[in-house]
Write a structure and sequence with these properties.
This protein has about 325 residues and is α/β, with parallel strands linked by helices. The chain has nine helices and twelve strands. Strand 9 and strand 10 form a beta hairpin. The chain is globular and about 55 Å long.
């Protein structure tokens, strides 16, 4: 079974060699899709044998889907790997040994990701394992069309979960972390507003059969419960849930920094940005005008759609249309 790895990059010179080295011996093709890096990312990737492609960045979902739709993917399976992620040796062995043995009706493989923050594994607070579908049969998967929190969804069969080591270990400092999450918060605020105002079609393909059941449950709780509570309350409750009831306090001082920033500050920032944007367009009623104003305020090009497209049907063996 051959595997093609797709890695999205922008100024990832610090991480890209580590990522590619971690999948040497298990993948047959590495495709790096770069968003016009200004550092040595592309040169390093080429030097390690990767195929490097440049494409203008809109968001993670559309960048990855562009790769799936455009590139000459030769693998029987496709692996999505972020530049700051690592496939550890035990997972590499598991993939090598178990993937060829999977029945034909298995079309996706979930991986259990752990997060390394300040060089320490965040074991508690509901952060391990984060089960996400990252490996799928070519032709049986696509990416949700979302501005934030996108997942790969599959059809035509079932999924299994591998348990080997899979780590997200970004080597940058806290300034990078907060800047990145500030940008994430803008994109997630767009999703929150779209949920409230129905500005453009929402991709409804994620469910327990098309991807990780854990991911589907978290999406349901976020959109059906969390987003309906005032953010001044929900952010605090979420932090307390993670830090106290899910034992985040056992992760030590660096864990407190992580859980506070990612579990409270970030969630509060999303809510505050959603409030700010909603107030900015409160005087508008036309969806096209609202999207135009949101595009101006966020820097992201948003296009209104008069009626939501039907949710793609996943699991019936047919290729779902993208929205």
């Amino acid at each position: 079974m051959s595997i093609t790895a797709i890695i999205l990059t922008y100024n990832e010179a610090r991480h890209i060699e580590r990522a590619i080295r971690s999948i040497e011996g298990i993948v047959d093709q590495v495709c790096v899709v770069d968003s016009d890096s200004t550092d040595d990312t592309r040169d390093i990737a080429r030097g390690l044998g990767a195929e490097v492609h440049t494409h203008a960045f809109v968001n993670q979902a559309r960048q990855l889907q562009w790769a799936l739709d455009t590139l000459d993917i030769r693998g029987d399976w496709v692996l999505r790997l972020d530049a700051d992620e690592i496939i550890e040796p035990d997972l590499a062995r598991e993939i090598t040994e178990q993937l060829p043995q999977l029945p034909a009706d298995v079309v996706g493989v979930n991986l259990q990701r752990k997060h390394i923050f300040m060089d320490r594994w965040v074991r508690h607070g509901g952060r391990f394992p984060l089960v996400m579908l990252r490996l799928w049969r070519h032709g049986h998967g696509r990416v949700e069309d979302r501005w934030m929190d996108e997942h790969v969804v599959v059809w035509g069969g079932s999924t299994v979960t591998f348990k080997g080591g899979f780590a997200d270990h970004n080597l940058h400092d806290l300034s990078y972390f907060t800047d990145k999450h500030n940008k994430y918060a803008t994109r997630e605020a767009i999703e929150v507003l779209n949920q409230r105002l129905h500005l453009f079609a929402r991709d409804g393909a994620l469910n327990a059969h098309s991807a990780s059941p854990q991911a589907a449950l978290k999406r349901w709780v976020k959109e059906r419960v969390y987003n309906r509570i005032p953010f001044t309350v929900s952010a605090a409750l979420y932090f307390l849930w993670r830090y106290i009831f899910q034992l985040g306090f056992l992760d030590g001082r660096s864990g407190l920094v992580y859980h506070f920033l990612q579990g409270y500050w970030y969630r509060f920032l999303v809510g505050a940005k959603a409030m700010e944007l909603e107030r900015a367009v409160a005087h508008l009623s036309d969806k096209t005008a609202i999207c135009a104003e949101l595009s101006r305020l966020t820097g992201h090009r948003l296009v209104a759609q008069s009626a939501p497209a039907p949710s793609p049907k996943v699991g019936d063996g047919q290729l779902p249309s993208r929205v």
